[in-house]
Amino acid sequence: MRALPLGRWVRAWRGPPRGLRGLSAHRDPPQQKVSVEVLDHLEHLALVDFRDAEGVERLQKAIEFADQLHEVNTDGVEPMDSVLEDRCLYLREDDVTEGNCTKELLENAREKVEEYFVAPPGNIPLPKLEERETFLQGS
Amino acid sequence: MAGTAARGCAGAWRRAWRRPGPCAAPRAQRAAACSARGGAVPAGHSGLAPWVPVVGLEVHAQISSNSKLFSGSQVQFAAPPNSLVSFFDASLPGTLPVLNRRCVEAAVMTGLALNCSINKKSLFDRKHYFYADLPAGYQITQQRVPIAVNGSLSYSLCINNKMSQMVTKTVRIKQIQLEQDSGKSLHDDTRSQTLVDLNRAGVGLMEVVMEPDMCCGEEAAAAVRELQLILQTLGSSQAVMAEGQLRVDANVSVHHSGEPYGVRTELKNINSLRFLAKAVDYEIQRQIEELENGGIILNETRVFDSKLGCTVPLRDKEGKQDYRFMPEPNLPPLILYDAKSLPANMNHQQVINIDWIHERLPDLPSVKREKLVEQYGILPEHSFTLMNEDGLAEFFENVVKQTQMKPKKVIGWILKDLLGYLKEHSLTVKESPVSSYLLADLLNLLEKKEISSTAAKQVLAELWKGEGKTALEIVKEQKLQLLQDQKELEQICQAVIDRQENEVMAIKAGNRKVLNKLIGLVQRETQGRSSPVLVKQLLEKKLSE
Q1: B403: helix, coil or strand?
Q2: What's the confidence (pLDDT) of residue B501?
Q3: How confident is the model over B488-502, as pLDDT tens digits?
Q4: Chain A contact set for B352 (CB, 8 A)
Q5: Distance from the A94 Cα atom to the nearest Cα atom in chain B, whole angstroms
Q6: Cα–Cα distance, B545 to B542 (Å, whole number)
Q7: B89 and which of A77, B195, B202, B217 could share a cystine (Cβ 3.0–4.6 Å)?
């Protein structure tokens, strides 16, 4: 069993952790503001609604918070995408153990037709930036 | 992997290619064009260099398993809507994916059969997009590190539309990945709504990505056909296109020889091998015409309209999709082992041993074809046809076992007569009213010279009606037995010679063709119960006396 992954982090740290909300003196100048195009793109992709300047500011702060990760020197270190990476991936036997609960599943559906879920005809894309009412237009 | 990939074709052309490096802008250039018909696609009126079509395929094969890839609900084709759906498949909160061992084994088998390197560590990712039949809003797939990479698939083509000349081609397999299938959407345009059935949501798929090594519809169809046969032989997928167990998307582009690849379009909604070939060929033609008329090709998705026989743009796409791939946080890496790396103290059920699977792979169609040729002395193209029809090879082998007739003669009866009838009546081998036993029985009568081959064909026609009679019974009923009495036959021959003075003179004068008329007359006298070969011998003997 190899050394706990924490060991890598300890070696790679340049110094003690920064305060959760404080800005570091060592950091690069604050990142550029997220552009309107990116915000619009995000609204299309994730169907979120930034709604107003405060929403965008919250996004901006979240990005700055995450940027603290750049302080860590990760040269030559394998990226870790999950704390589960050392776990064994459990393999299930190929047996039928679930299903047959149509009624329960359809209980929450607002509209149904003969045991089918009902959805709008195809995706209805968010209208283009110019064509919809959003505060992003003013930015 | 630098090198020369030489692939045989009637025109004996060679392609030299380099695998593009990280910053190669123009992609690998091809030295010559390809065409199953032995030539490049000629240019139209512009008189420019010939066009080189490039075809790549993405094949999705539904894994043949009892339950789904990440949940325990059943995999079945036709079932009441939403009856084979678990809470996980419906993406209800609080549910997690649990990987099905059988699906992993199926992917490993397929990877090995396609000469791939199996990645001992592969990863799962989420591919995000919105659609009503994808309840989670993402599909779990393997985008970064798939389970198998860098394989190859060899397939055969007949050139010149004759079965007599076959050529072997190879297409590189880029990768095989495990991923979830989506549910089904039924579009109800009249009521402007979509009905969603999640029975198929979460079923395991193997996506087989083929490099753009093909150049026309025929090659694409042949490659997919061979893949289909391999999957069916392995049992990893039933690969029936009509039931959606095998789906093909084609990427098509054209360029001039020596220039970089052209813009490609993606063709979807192809439901059969025949339509695949048609769609690809139509698209190649469309692109050539468009470019020759000064137009441009858009990087778009098009669907094949089988009724009109053309491809049309798919308008539902909202520009280029950004799938925002991210690692699947709920699944650790998939680790596979081989004989060397097998962990000592792990539960067997939790371990997948690549070598163990490799040892148990059945004979692939290509191996089976060679064995048939070797064992029975039949031609490669016969072997190809035998393997191409489900159950036909087995039928042939059963007949050979039960008859004294040589396999080389039996094959004619199988491929021409039996297969001819089956095709005419749209029957599969399994549905044949003539069993291998009945056919062998008939062929034995022929071999023992109790009937002529013409009579045999008559008997087969009668057997085809499936009325339960044996060959012998039909022969007796229709009085088809060959005359066994040589003396009687000689007398008849003599009688014909005596009667047909003019013809006899013509033959003696050198016109051998007239002999056929005499043979015909003898046949008529004997009501077809004489062997034409024997009659000819007797007549010739008498005429030379």
Answers
A1: coil
A2: 83
A3: 888 888 888 888 888
A4: 91
A5: 6
A6: 5
A7: B202
Six-digit token pair at B103?
């699906």
> How far A40 CA sits from the closest chain B CA (Å)?
13
Proportion of chain B in helix, strand, coil states, percent, rounded to 5: 35, 20, 40
Query: What was the pLDDT predicted at B41?
Result: 62
Among B385, B482, B484, B399, smallest CA distance to B443 is for B399
Residue B155 to residue B36: CA distance in whole angstroms:
12
B71 contact residues in A (CB cutoff 8 A): 98
> pLDDT tens digit string along B334-349?
999 999 999 888 888 9
In terms of CA atoms, which chain B residue is nearest residue A47? B130
**Cβ of B76 under 8 Å from any chain A Cβ?**
no
Which range has the worst mean pLDDT, A63-72, B41-50, B104-113, B152-161? B41-50
Placement of tokens 């036709």 in the chain: B78
Other CB atoms within a 10 A radius of the CB of residue B541 amount to 11
Strand partners, B500: none
Do the chains contact at A99 and B185, CB–CB below 8 Å? Answer: no
B332 contacts A84? CB cut-off 8 A: yes
CB contact under 8 A, A99 and B74: yes
- Residues 188 through 247 of chain B touching chain A, CB cutoff 8 Å: 188-189, 192-198
Q: With an 8 Å Cβ cutoff, are A101 and B188 in contact?
A: no
Say whether A119 and B332 touch across the interface (CB within 8 A).
Answer: no
Q: Which residues pair with B313 in a beta bridge?
A: B302
Instruction: Please state, in angstroms and rounded to a whole number, the distance separating the CA atoms of residues A108 and A112.
Output: 10
Distance CA B151, CA B115 (A): 5
Residues of A near B (Cβ–Cβ under 8 Å) read 41, 44-45, 47, 81-82, 84-102, 105-106, 113-123, 125
Distance CA A61, CA A21 (A): 10
Q: What is the pLDDT of residue B25?
A: 28
Q: CA distances (Å), B204 to each of B61, B92, B312, B323, in order?
A: 9, 19, 30, 20
Please provide residue B271's backbone torsions phi and psi, each rounded to the nearest 5 degrees: -105, -5
Query: What percent of chain B lies above the pLDDT cut of 90?
Result: 58
Cα B94 to Cα B314: distance, rounded to the nearest angstrom: 36
Q: What is the mean pLDDT of residues B218-240?
A: 96
Tell me the nearest-neighbour CA distance from B109 into chain A, angstroms: 16
Q: What is d(CA B198, CA A122) in angstroms, rounded to the nearest whole number?
A: 16
Q: Do A82 and B132 touch (CB under 8 A)?
A: no
Q: Can you tell me the distance from the alpha carbon of B530 to that of B455, in angstroms, rounded to the nearest whole number?
A: 10
The SS3 assignment for B245 reads coil
B433-448 pLDDT, tens digit per residue, is 999 998 998 998 888 8
What's this model's pTM, rounded to 2 decimal places?
Answer: 0.80
